[in-house]
Amino acid sequence: MITFENITKVYKSGSQEVRALDGVNLHVNKGEIYGVIGSSGAGKSSLIRCVNLLERPTSGKVIVNNRNIVSLSAKALRAEKQNIGMVFQHFNLLDSKTIFTNVAMPLLLMKRPKAEVEERVRELLDFVGLADKADNYPDQLSGGQKQRVGIARALATNPSILLCDEATSALDPQTTESILKLLKKINADYNITILIITHEMGVIRDICDKVAVIDKGEIVEYGFVFDVFAQPKTEIAHNFVRSVMQDDIPDSVYQLIHTQTGNNRIFRIVFLGESTSKPLLSLIAKQFDVDVNVLFGGITELQAKPFGNLIISLNGEEREISRVIDYVNEQNVTIKEVIEDAS
Amino acid sequence: MLVDWNQIIEALWQTIIMVSFSLLFSAVIGVVLGILLVITRKGHLWENPALFRVMSGVVNVLRSIPFIILLVAVIPFTRLIVGTSIGTAAATVPMVIYAGPYIARLIENSLLEVDPGVMEAAQSMGATPWQIVLRFLIPEALSSLILGFTIATIGLVGASAMAGAVGGGGLGDVAITFGYQRFDTTVMYITVGILIVMVQGVQSTGNYLSNRIRRR
Predict the structure, then answer these.
(1) What whole-number distance in Å separates Cα of residue A95 and Cα of residue B141?
(2) With a cut of 0.85, is the ipTM above it?
(3) Cα–Cα distance between A130 and A325 in angstroms, integer?
(4) Chain-chain contact of B118 with A93 (C-beta, under 8 angstroms)
(5) Is the CB of residue B145 less than 8 Å from the CB of residue B138?
């Protein structure tokens, strides 16, 4: 649906060159919610603007619907933009126009018949839950409501792609949640491909199927959200994971380990979805001759499925412990040793 | 002391004619120039640094000439356009040359205040440059544009007083001839009073319209 091929973006100011994007390759499939996360200045904002050419890449291709958007004529590009909706961090609504006109704007630009515009706008306002605000002005709405207007406007032309530029970063946590639910609904109901850029790992955790981590203009890590959460490969990805899910072993746990006796090994187990419903730890304790102790961890929600990350200690014979590891592996649960022989 | 009211009413009328016509023409020039001064900027809709520099230079040159000098300096040009260099119609020409670049700067200022995010949204929707100017830039800046025109109109009322120097007539002319040269202070006070009322009226109307449109 969207493919970035070797995208670079260089800004020149005087003799200084800043490489905002440095050889980015990324592929977004149809119907996916793809999140790109990075700190400010990492290049994510430039990346998303390359999809509808609000910023033109210095080199590389952006393939949207099998066409390289960079080589389109101005006219063809304008037509293509009707297929790509965009939602902004600061909403970017016209303060001088009513909510109705704001949502209608993309259709008015296309000179659609009045009756059609009327019908479509009512439908959209209904969908985002603002049917009663049609005649209000943006300054009479809350941040969350303004973003709903922004989303309705982006959907006006029935696009197949929705770009979200830090769409929830200016909103409070509760409003963020409701906007994310709306985006999820759009994705599910209309099968619209969504590309989100954000600096909040919570957004990735809540709605994205895949995630790419961008740093200094390069994609340093990408994959399914579960995989990145379970085993972040880079320090920067790990930091983002940590921002929503504490997975470091606190000092107090270390202290505890040192006071324990016997053969004691510490493992991290990570599991998603159905495997959380099985009483795994209790089964281990029953079936094997080991003592199981949960030292630390938590269960959070990843795409509406429970996602657990626990630090446990296993105390027992070496042979029994390796049997436990085999058993856990069979259950589709990731287990990884954290500290060897902490006794 | 006798006050010739007919004369004052005629002068008032001349002032209104001079101000309205020069406002009309200078607004056309100012709007076009002002929009161009914005969209030819670096990184804007119709980037053209050369054109921008030329226009900006011309505006600066015209704006640095004192109005009283301009009034005399453009006489040959006025004669070319109006056919005569004296009278109310003739006074309009230097007034337009004076106010046009001034309005251009006021408009440029207002348009530059429009949130760049709104422009970005417009571009993301696939709006043509023309649509962006008409449907996004101008409506979003309208409230501020009206205040700009208010300032320009008041400036023109002031300029019209000096236009008396080329026989343009008007309230300013009456105030100078009667009040200053003939020491008829009553007439002077009356004309100045009328000018104050005019300026107040223009400003209040401008504020009212601008406030009605303002939405933020």
Answers:
(1) 10
(2) yes
(3) 53
(4) yes
(5) yes
